[in-house]
Design goal:
- The protein has about 190 residues and is an alpha/beta fold.
- It has two domains: about 5-50, Helicase, Ruva Protein, domain 3 (Orthogonal Bundle); about 75-190, Dna Topoisomerase Vi A Subunit, Chain: A, domain 2, CATH 3.40.1360.10.
- It has helices spanning about 5-15, 20-30, 35-50, 70, 85-95, 145-155, 180-190, and strands spanning about 55, 60, 75-85, 100-105, 135, 160-165.
- The strands form two sheets. A four-stranded parallel β-sheet has the order 4-3-5-6. Strands 1-2 form a two-stranded antiparallel sheet.
- Strand 3 (about 75-85), helix 5 and strand 4 (about 100-105) form a beta-alpha-beta unit.
- Helix 1 packs across helix 2 (about 20-30).
Length: about 190
């Protein structure tokens, strides 16, 4: 049997953004921690695999179905924001600005990578469009994100639903002289009245 420290280090190093040295530090931290911590960590990892599933409404990751966001009666069900991933949803939620519902695609169109509309959660969105006031598309400002936004827009607009795109532009605290042309162009297009 392999050395438990080496085995844990190898497994931790497979996590995104965790290199071998960080994985080793984490392994030693777990080893030095009280045994309750290691047990709770192991139980949390097992529960993650066993209990977390997709929300049947918005495709968010959740331990309850429907998820807390879809169950929240205070949220406007006539306003849906489409995002590529759960981390994108969480980033929008941290702003505390959006009080509508979400729909998670779990990716973006990328024909070169073999990701077409059938690999995304687009067909799950379609039944939710009835009675909708606005569909906000908040995909990443990448080629794939733009292609996904355009595809969804073309699919939804004929149904009479208002489709909008989040504004994209210059980040707060940055200098205009260092912004690229596409970012500046989008900042101008997404301008609003003061």
């Amino acid at each position: 049997m392999a050395d438990p420290i080496a085995r844990l280090t190898v497994l931790l190093a497979k996590l995104p953004g965790v290199g071998e040295k960080t994985a080793q530090r984490l392994a030693f931290h777990i080893l030095k921690s009280p045994s309750d911590y290691a047990r709770e960590l192991a139980e949390a990892l097992l529960a993650l695999q066993k209990e977390v599933r997709l929300c049947s409404i918005c495709c968010n990751l959740t331990a309850q179905d429907p998820c807390g966001l879809c169950s929240d009666a205070q949220r406007d069900e006539r306003l849906i924001c489409v995002v590529e991933s759960v981390p994108d949803l969480l980033a929008l939620e941290r702003t505390r600005e959006f009080r509508g519902r979400y729909h998670v695609l779990h990716g973006a169109l990328s024909p070169l990578d073999g990701v077409g509309p059938d690999q995304l959660k687009i067909k799950e969105l379609l039944p939710r469009l009835r009675g909708l006031n606005e569909l906000i598309i908040a995909t990443d400002p990448t080629v794939e994100g733009e292609a996904t936004a355009l595809y969804i827009s073309r699919l939804v607009k004929p149904l009479g639903v208002r489709v909008t795109r989040i504004a994209q532009g210059v980040p707060t605290g940055s200098d205009l002289e260092y912004a690229d042309q596409v970012t500046l162009a989008r900042a101008l297009q997404g301008r609003r009245e003061l």
